[in-house]
Amino acid sequence: MKDVIFDDFQNSVNESLLRHKSILDILSKLSESQSKVNRAVTKAVTNCGCIKINASRQILPSDEDSLENLDNCLKSHLEGQLCDSCREIVEREIGNNLFYLTSLCNTLDLNLYDILIKENDKINTLGKFTFR
What we know:
By secondary structure, this protein is mostly helical.
């Protein structure tokens, strides 16, 4: 069932993309949309203040089986939660980013759902050893 949702989304994007059919347009719009996601999160910090970034050096454990304990040690450096207004803006920008990512998949004849499944399989197989 989930593959139907992905396929439907991918087909809808393909049908609705009119102006930016060139691979160059798609790549530049994808990059621009990612910048807008970054800007929306930044504005949530600097303009709204609903979230705060409190960053410092990540402290890694020194013992050998530390890989198992990394999630307890590594921090996101994020405090607070997005307010409703900022959440709406960030979601809209991520949606635009997904649109252009899907456009790129369409142009390169790639199936977004297949990519997601392969990535999920890799994560499930390698787990923390993906080192991301």
